[in-house]
Amino acid sequence: MEKGKKIKLGISIGDLNGIGSEIIIKTFEDNRMLEFCTPVIFASIKTMSFFKKHFKSSINFHAINHTDQIIQGKVNVLNVWKENVTINFGEEDLKIGEYSVKSLEAATDALKKEAIDVLVTAPIHKHNIQSDDFKFPGHTNYLAEKLGGKSLMFMVTNTLKVGLLTDHVPVKDVPNHITAELINEKIDTVYTSLKQDFRISKPRIAVLGINPHAGDNGVIGEEDDKVLRPTLQDIKEKGKMVYGPYSADSFFGSGNYKNFDAIVASYHDQGLIPFKTIAFGHGVNYTAGLNRVRTSPDHGTAFEIAGKGKADNGSFKEAVFTAIEVFKNRKEYNEYSKNPLKKAPKKI
Known about the structure:
By secondary structure, the protein is an alpha/beta fold. It has 10 helices and 12 strands. It has helices at about 20-30, 45-55, 95-110, 140-145, 175, 180-195, 225-235, 250, 270-280, 315-340; strands spanning about 5-10, 35-45, 60-65, 75-80, 120, 150-155, 160-165, 205-210, 240-245, 260-265, 285-290, 295. A 12-stranded mixed β-sheet has the order 3-4-2-1-5-12-11-6-7-10-8-9, with helices on both faces. The longest helix has 25 residues, at about 315-340. The chain starts with 6 loop residues before the first strand and ends in a 10-residue tail after the last helix.
């Protein structure tokens, strides 16, 4: 990236019948945001103009057809489609899902080609996006296939970071997915991300048990003692500060999570329920482990309030700032890794 240039921040529009458009507009109608980045919304100027009028916004859009037309200091809208789209706020619509996919695919392609620096994804509806050509349960799985690296759903704030051993997996299948290989892979991804993306030099990681009370010495399941505990011990002996497995029911309520830089949960709800209880509205979903930076807000399409002007854009704005921070941190980390004699500035 050239000196003096703002980070090019790509935005996929998400489900057009949800709150994505509203939180994007609320974020970037504040011109001060343009001091931090150059936004590029992958949608169409016709569609975004409809949203501008509907929400009575003062935002000004700059329409472009190619990424080489991006202008710094403007809210750029890249025309992924040109036809009119019928918006029915709050409705599930497979046709609208097709536009979610078009936006995501175009933004991901631009990210791969480094036409944009980072990607922030507005919420999609997981059912609406399914088709013969698109069979992914969500953004994370799609990006894992299209971008290099090992993806991990990492829910983050400044003070709380929660990663998952398994994400969109049915609860009945969780124990079969958790193997020594998976545990090593996910903890390594969390550890690396804490160092290069968040500039934590000696990460402390806590891991939550698979079963209630982490199995209670085999009384409530054997997976913790036979798989999780010995694998964590091996990782610890190799030099990483990894602790657990901890009983998940009391870990957050006791405040123990504050003693660690990250917590790794065994399955989706075990990690996301406490995270969203503590941080909802300002948490960020970050896909760690990829060779590109992608973030999103910590909520879904919120069909029940879509189009009503009631959506809170706090989490989306945090996703923007987190993407910028991680991009800069990773760039700096890579520079100092190439030249270990050059001392990196301390994180403030």
